[in-house]
């Protein structure tokens, strides 16, 4: 685990724990630990930070910070902020948690769902033309495509719901099922 060792701007223990834990969680989500820690650090930061400050505060190599910042910029989770009388790049994180989740979801959709849909459609097209592919296998491919396409549609629907209604929808959770035919309350 990368240790935060800077004493000048040392984070309070709970915030340091958050940065370290976010890094570990990132690893479980398939994201480099350093990238996740930098994201957490910038999320908590009260002002835009330069790469040198980030590297020093998190005790990371400057090159690692630079590469991680590029990745976070590509995910649109951080942005460059121009500072008057300072030519260095300053970075700040998006702090609206819904916006963070939406950007991560958009990135995941682009990197995972869209290619999965394309692959499934291609496999189904080939399977439907191949007499050696059983009806069972064809049906399972179609079921997988239907499920993945439903997730894709749900993602699009969630983006179109205004934030206030989306918050209410999440709070309602499973209670919504009671309003559906055959739903239990």
Tally of extended strands?
3
Rg value: 22 Å
Strand content range? 5-15%
Oligomer: single chain
Sheet of most strands: 3 strands, antiparallel
Order the strands across the largest sheet as they lie in space: 1-3-2
Structural class: mainly alpha
Overall pLDDT: 90
- Would you state the CATH class of the largest domain? Mainly Alpha
Overall shape: it is extended
How many discrete domains? 2
What is the CATH T-level topology of the largest domain? Arc Repressor Mutant, subunit A
What is the H level of CATH, i.e. the homologous superfamily of the largest domain?
Answer: Winged helix-like DNA-binding domain superfamily/Winged helix DNA-binding domain
Termini gap: 45 Å
- Proportion of residues in helical segments: 55-70%
Low-confidence stretches: none
Structure annotation, total helices: 7
Q: Supply the CATH architecture of the largest domain.
A: Orthogonal Bundle
> Could you state the order of secondary-structure elements as H and E?
HHEHHEEHHH
Please describe what this structure looks like.
By secondary structure, the protein is mainly alpha-helical. It folds into two domains: 13-93, Orthogonal Bundle (Arc Repressor Mutant, subunit A); 97-162. The chain is 64% helix and 9% strand. It has seven helices and three strands; from the N terminus they run H-H-E-H-H-E-E-H-H-H. The chain has helices at residues 13-28, 33-44, 51-58, 62-74, 97-129, 135-160, 163-172; strands at 49-50, 78-83, 86-93. The chain has a three-stranded antiparallel beta sheet with strand order 1-3-2. Strand 2 and strand 3 form a beta hairpin. Helix 1 (13-28) packs antiparallel against helix 2 and helix 5 (97-129) runs antiparallel to helix 6. The N and C termini lie far apart (45 Å).
């Amino acid at each position: 685990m990368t240790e935060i060792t800077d004493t000048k701007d040392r984070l309070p223990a709970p915030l340091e724990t958050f940065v370290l834990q976010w890094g570990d969680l990132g690893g479980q989500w398939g994201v480099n630990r350093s990238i996740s820690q930098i994201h957490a650090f910038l999320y908590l930061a009260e002002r835009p930070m330069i790469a040198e400050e980030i590297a020093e505060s998190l005790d990371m190599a400057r090159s690692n910070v630079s590469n991680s910042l590029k990745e976070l910029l590509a995910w649109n989770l951080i942005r460059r902020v121009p500072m008057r009388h300072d030519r260095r790049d300053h970075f700040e994180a998006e702090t609206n948690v819904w916006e963070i989740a939406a950007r991560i979801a958009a990135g995941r959709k682009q990197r995972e769902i869209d290619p999965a849909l394309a692959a499934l459609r291609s496999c189904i097209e080939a399977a439907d033309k191949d007499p050696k592919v059983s009806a069972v296998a064809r049906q399972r491919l179609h079921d997988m495509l239907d499920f993945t396409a439903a997730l894709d549609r749900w993602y699009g629907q969630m983006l179109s719901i205004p934030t206030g209604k989306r918050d209410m929808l999440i709070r309602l959770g499973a209670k919504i099922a009671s309003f559906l035919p055959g739903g239990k309350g």
